[in-house]
Amino acid sequence: MRCVVLVLMALGLFVWEPLYFGATSSAHGENSFKDACIKYFEERKYDLAIDACSKAIVIDPNDANAYSARGLAYLAKGEHHLAIKDLTKAIKINPNYVAAYAGRGKAYLFKDKYDLAIKDFTKVIDIYPDAVAYAGRGFAYLLKGEYDPAIKDFSKAIELDPNYIDAYYGRGKTYFDKGEHDLAVKDFTKVIEINPNDIEAYTSRGLAFLYKDQYDLAIKDFTKAIKINPNDASTYVTRGNIYRYKGQYDLAIKDFTKAIELDPNYIDAYDSRGMLYFFRDEYDLAIRDFTKAIEIWGAYHNREKTYLTKGEYNSKLDEIVKTIDIASTYIHRGMAYFAKGEYDLTIKDFTKAFEITPSPLLQKILYAYDFKGLAYAARGDWKRAKLDLEKAVKITPKNPLAHYHLAFVLYKLGFKERAVKELKKAYELNPQIMEARGKDLTRPMAKSTLHFYAEEYLFAAEHLEAPKEYLAKAGKIFASKPPYLEIASVELFDENGDRLFSAGETGKVVVKITNSGKGPAYRISLKIASPFFKKELVIPKLAPGKTLTKSVSFKVPVRVKTQNVYADISLEAGKFSPEPVRVTFTTKAPIPPHFKITYRIDDDRVGESMGDGDGNVEPRETIELLVTVANTGKGPAKDVRVLLFSEDVDIIKKEARIGNLPPGASNTGKLVFFVPANVSKKEINFTISIKEALGIFGASTKLAFNIKKGGGKLYDYTVTTK
Known about the structure:
With 722 residues, this protein is α+β, with helices and mostly antiparallel strands. Among the domains are: 367-479, Alpha Horseshoe (Serine Threonine Protein Phosphatase 5, Tetratricopeptide repeat); 485-588, Immunoglobulin-like (Sandwich), CATH 2.60.40.10; 595-718, Immunoglobulin-like (Sandwich). It is 52% helix and 19% strand. The chain contains 28 helices and 17 strands. The strands form 4 sheets. A 5-stranded mixed β-sheet has the order 2-8-7-4-5. The protein has a 5-stranded antiparallel β-sheet with strand order 12-14-10-9-17, with no helix packed on it. Strands 13-11-15-16 form a 4-stranded antiparallel β-sheet, with no helix packed on it. A hairpin with a 7-residue loop joins strand 15 and strand 16. The radius of gyration is 40 Å and the shape is flat.
């Protein structure tokens, strides 16, 4: 369909030429630059016109004609901001300047400022009410979405000029947007009667026929447009889509391929051809085309971001539309990956679609949560599937597929009552849903995908009536060549290799799974549970004759007792689930350390201390408190730290790392504090705390120092373990 912008470009640009350059007085006499300005403008040599007009304005800053001509030249070049600036100046000099109002009205249309455009075109109508002025205002109303006043203005333009093609086209476009396709066809037909070679009239009428489901007439019009101009790629794409609606896939692919030949960077052509390959179950070809569309969009998007930075890209609507289109392409490619059983790539594409269209409205358009949740479900990640499908139901409550897929996921998670409720909702929204879902079972998709669809269908058939042929197909897919799963072995490993799982130690469970059956197993859930931990791993597929090894790490609690502990290992694969296995292992309680703390006051001028070196705690001194920690117990202590707390002084260094202390070992750390000059207390109080890695064998003691007392001797303190 003809872009309204193209119509605006042609709309009355020269229709008021006699009024452009009326006589104006010039204080500077003859101005040859003004003559050149007007001459170049009329010859459509806009750069030369702009240069000459600028020189004319220097000679006569009050020459409205020069401003108008330069503004219209800017308008023709697409520099709308500069056009508005010059045309506004021309209007200020001459408040009845028709051409300036008309040109500025068009510039406002390009800037999406429809109310200002309407105001300018109304002014033109007041001064010079011809067909072009009414059509200009009609396009402003059309772009604003006010269809009735647009139709009224286009009709007035036609009354004034019965052969005005753009007025018929504008009114036809307005009727089309209102959904009155019969009237749209009538106006586009009138355009064709006046100009039998008007390509845009044929394509616009073809689209109106398409919306009337008159596919053959639509194809006939697009074929005529192609005959007039065989080099327009967009016409081939639209005709190709009409062939697709008719189910004539070969002809559609031929048109999309021709469009790509004419324009190798035509995103819509690749996406449309990719969808046809998808419908024909040619998934690799579909993925190839979707990928090409995405690559082209990536290059375009980076370029457009540069334009936006420079302020050269006016309409954000086009950017939004392009974003929705490419997000759809990611969804389409994700669907193709899903059909091939490549669920991780499916999820990756759906996630990307969300990244570029974060608006909930766009997500609603794309149904992306439904598709993404379905991919998680097919992979056996039921919890993530539930999260996404619940979002899908919330955002698109009338989407039956979202309710259908959510029902199965809820069933797999054990929410049977909710599952049945969602399934009935899906049927309420689409009573033919079992017919539609059954057809998917006949498509040549990956075995894992068909297996998922079959299992889902069999569940739904327990509560909804299903066509017998599809029910039999689902049963055959699901039951053919069953797997035989076994937990072949379970091994446990501790961190230090002594076969005892000590407090705070990291352990590992290694499970070997085999499938000795004749068919693959899908969406296997490996669950490991003990009093200490619970883990779940999803295995998308295990082929027949294959063995898979999975490992899970866990942390032994620090307050564990010495005892025998069990771990239950199970595989959940529907009716193919094997018997669970229980293994036992021994935990070892920690042997407590015992801490002895000694400390010494250092107030010399070496290191971080600053004082008189007499070993006394005095005002204005910086004291190093050297703390020695000895482990006199039977158990080791790891990562020992000493911490200092006080409300009476300024703590400069409140923590010292002692390190590991095996039984009998000791180490010294340094803490630092400053005694304020205005300290009023005779005695200052401290708390020293000992921390270790397990966090259960700490120690603490309280200290008190008399100001100006101490003598520098060594004080020994013993602190018992908590």
